[in-house]
Write a structure and sequence with these properties.
This protein has 88 residues and is an all-alpha fold. The protein is built from 5 helices and no strands. Helix content is 53%, strand content 0%. The protein is globular and about 30 Å long.
């Protein structure tokens, strides 16, 4: 297992949001990556906060997930189990 202690909080936030939105839409990593023209491994590394995505990649992710760039970068409150509160 990788040591995530050096993961930027901004990359971690983006990764959590991408993964949450992808799974809420019932998409697997492979299908979203193919839709966006990127490798599944690259998408996975973004979701884990290991890779820093460019603004162009963030824009592609937002378009593919049908959300704004701002939505991918916003902190969404969670309950004590880590589940998102409020609207998705």
């Amino acid at each position: 297992m990788a040591d995530n202690s050096n993961v930027s909080p901004h990359r971690a936030l983006l990764g959590r949001n991408v993964k949450a939105l992808r799974t809420m839409r019932g998409l697997g990593q492979e299908s979203l990556a193919m839709q966006l023209g990127m490798s599944r491994a690259y998408l996975s590394s973004i979701e884990r906060g290991e890779k820093a995505a460019t603004i162009d990649t963030i824009a592609r992710l937002a378009e593919g997930l049908d959300v704004t760039i701002a939505r991918l970068l916003e902190e969404v409150p969670t309950d004590e189990k880590g589940k998102r509160k409020g609207k998705n």
